[in-house]
Amino acid sequence: MSNISASPSLDSAKVGVIGGSGLYAIDALEDVREVELETPFGPPSDAFRVGRLNGVDIVFLARHGRHHHLLPSEVPYRANVWALRSLGVRWLVSVSAVGSLREHLRPRDMVVPDQFIDRTMQRPQSFFGDGCVAHVSLADPFCSRLSDLLATAASMEMPTGHHLHRGGTYLCMEGPAFSTRAESELYRRWGCDVIGMTNHTEARLAREAEIAYASLSMVTDFDCWHNDHDAVTVEMVVGNLKANALATGPILSRLMESMRQEPPASKAHRALADALMTPAEVVPEATRQRLDLFTSPYWGSVTAS
Questions:
Q1: 35 beta partners
Q2: Is 223 a catalytic residue?
Q3: pLDDT tens, position by position, 194-212
Q4: Which residue in 57, 109, 193, 221 is the catalytic one?
Q5: Is 221 a catalytic residue?
Q6: CB of 84 within 8 A of CB of 211?
Q7: φ, ψ (nearest 5 deg) of residue 9
Q8: Do 197 and 191 form a contact (C-beta atoms < 8 A)?
Q9: Catalytic pick from 109, 114, 193, 223?
Q10: Where would a tag sit more exposed on the chain, N or C end, judged by fewer CB atoms within 10 A?
Q11: Cα torsion angle, 202, 120, 73, 246, sign
Q12: In the chain, where are the structural domains located?
């Protein structure tokens, strides 16, 4: 096996953007090239589109594939995050479609959440295992600085009639079916604000990969708790997806202006400093090879035999 090289320093790091339902490309991306990668965790969702946006190096990935062929449970989350880090990404913005659990969070509004509740059951939750234990802190699963910059950019570029909401709890469900009414009401009693199927898995893995993570959650409809939910049509949801996708370009461009001027410091960039529990010398070599991308600052790089 060849050595796995560490990604560039933070001074030369890139910003990653993961596009969810409705967002399969960034039209304003310049000098675009496509990069296909294999990872120790299998192939990613699709080829990466690498380019520049407002003077900042960007790596874009369509979470479900550019033709939306992957269920939420089928998305190769570990491969996606590992590949992003290998391409030099240290700040990651997720753009995702969500349902609303609150009356004031209306279709075509946007939310920058700050907490999660995880209800997934069929997903890999960690890069670790197979002879290596690490416990990262996930008390604050989003990078607060990156979230602040994202919220500020969104507030400056929101289309007329749309509203931005800062903070809130994202309930991550397994899918692909939507909630029952009883589940929807339960999540409301838990204090959740929006519901989706992907972000918590990404955020957990991004923290282990020492990538700062933030989400622009875009409301397409009310979840089934709402009295008007039966009036929601596929055409309406698709229309909201398209409108939200069109709104993301100016928001991301504005965010890159801030990132170019002041890249945010993030605790996430040192998440493994106090998390690695297993002595490096007893970790199996194959496991060390898979993890070297993240652990080399603490253990040194693996030399292949």
A1: 48
A2: yes
A3: 999 999 999 999 999 999 9
A4: 221
A5: yes
A6: yes
A7: -65, 170
A8: no
A9: 223
A10: C
A11: negative
A12: 10-299
